[in-house]
Automatic annotation (TrEMBL):
It comes from the Eukaryota. GO terms for molecular function: RNA binding. Residues 27-59 form the RRM domain. It comes from Campylorhamphus procurvoides. Signal peptide: none annotated. This is STPAP polymerase.
């Protein structure tokens, strides 16, 4: 039980909480045109609220992206 108050445990717990919060604000999308750029995705998703980040992976077959909101 003493490990629960340790520095490493507190750091890992904070990291897990941050990841959970990020999961709640993130939306995975796929199937958009290969020529789509991050600015275009941002414009599309801003119709539903503020967008804090757009991450796109075009190296795989098909385009994929993640949109994060506040």
């Amino acid at each position: 039980a003493s490990h629960l108050s340790g520095k490493r445990h507190r750091r890992l717990r904070a990291l897990r909480a941050e990841r959970r919060e990020q999961e709640l604000r993130s939306l995975f999308v796929s199937g958009f045109a290969r020529g789509t750029d991050p600015a275009e995705l941002r414009r599309l998703f801003e119709a539903f609220g503020a967008v804090t980040a757009v991450v796109m992976d075009k190296d795989r077959v098909g385009a994929r992206g993640v949109s994060q909101s506040r």
